[in-house]
Specification:
Layout: H1 3-9, H2 14-28, H3 37-50, H4 56-65, H5 70-79, H6 90-104, H7 107-112, E1 115-120, H8 127-140, E2 147-154, H9 157-165, E3 167-168, H10 178-184, E4 185-190, E5 193-198, H11 200-203, E6 206-210, E7 224-229, H12 238-250, E8 252-260, E9 274-277, E10 280-282
Parallel strand pairs: 1-2, 1-7, 2-6, 7-8
Antiparallel strand pairs: 3-5, 4-5, 8-10, 9-10
Helix pairs in contact: 6-8
This protein binds S-adenosylmethionine.
Length: 283
């Protein structure tokens, strides 16, 4: 085999990069800028090689011409960064506990909100909605009969399918408060490995769905009491952040909260929210 030809054929040209960068930006809002050639080469190169495409350009054309949109999905899956962990940024979960306790102790508030709705808007492999479910169920033990609905959405179907299982290897649960671990994670076996799984009662509270934050108008019927939109807007440029924050705000109840990632901020964005503390905003 002529390896020099194979390697040369898989070269990511500046034009290829530009085409891919534009496609990713238009479809997901993820702004790769002009310096992420290494990332694109590494993450897409694997697909290009294993699927037998002769070049990045050939792969790009294939994605562009796929009417099902599945190839685009796979490309965006490969490009997006899905890093997450249980109880990431613990202060948000302490805040959620305090909010739920305060709201549920208030009869008027309860009458106005027969269902508590929380949205994890870029949930990746599920650690965020699973952490939300553990805290909320823990609070709800003192308030039987309260209806709780958690919506967990992400662009990546690969991540969503992992999220639905709620399965964790033991080394991934170190950040879970011990009492929640005992109550809500059950030992089981998956693929011959001893693992832990979020109990069915909690998994049933969560609806998982693919949803792109770039969708022009968010189609949800109901409004949310709390929206977690963390560690995703960092990949968007300012106009995209502005548009997303506007649409998230629209989907919040008056008095509801928007939580963003600890390395994110709404500085420089026009919004109708009140700053509460870093990364926490109220409508
Ligand atoms: C770094 S993870 C954040 C996970 C979790 N929110 C956290 O803070 O731990 C970013 C997630 O955003 C998702 N994402 C990227 N662009 C998106 C878009 N346009 N719409 C919805 N989700 C998107 C990715 O698929 C990825 O799972």
């Amino acid at each position: 085999m002529d390896f020099s030809t194979a390697t040369a054929a898989l070269d990511l040209t500046q034009d290829d990069y530009e085409l891919i960068r534009r496609l990713v930006y238009c479809q997901s809002g993820i702004n790769l800028g002009d310096k992420k050639t290494q990332l694109v080469r590494a993450r897409l190169g694997k697909i290009v090689r294993t699927r037998g495409f002769r070049s990045f350009r050939e792969y790009y054309r294939h994605v562009e011409q796929d009417p099902s949109g599945e190839e685009l999905c796979t490309l965006l899956d490969a490009i997006s960064t899905n890093t997450t962990h249980l109880f990431r940024e613990m202060s948000h979960f302490n805040l959620l506990r305090r909010l739920l306790q305060t709201w549920l102790a208030d009869r008027d508030w309860r009458a106005r909100h027969p269902t508590i709705r929380i949205w994890s808007a870029a949930c990746s492999s599920g650690e965020e909605p699973h952490s939300i479910a553990m805290v909320a169920h823990d609070v709800l033990r003192d308030h039987p009969g309260v209806d709780l609905k958690i919506l967990a959405t992400d662009l990546s179907v690969r991540m969503l399918s992992r999220a639905m299982l709620g399965i964790y290897e033991p080394h991934r649960i170190g950040t879970v408060p011990p009492e929640l671990k005992t109550r809500y994670l059950r030992p089981t076996v998956a693929d011959g490995e001893a693992v832990l799984q979020l109990i069915p009662e909690l998994r049933q509270t969560i609806t998982f769905a693919r949803f792109n934050l770039m969708t022009p108008a968010f189609p949800f019927r109901n409004r949310f009491n709390v929206i977690f939109c963390r560690n995703v807007m960092i990949y968007f440029d300012r106009p995209t952040q502005q548009a997303v924050v506007g649409k998230l705000t629209e989907r919040l109840h008056e008095g509801g909260y928007l939580l963003i990632g600890h390395s994110e901020s709404l500085n420089g964005i026009d919004h109708r929210l009140t700053y509460v503390e870093p990364t926490v905003y109220q409508k």
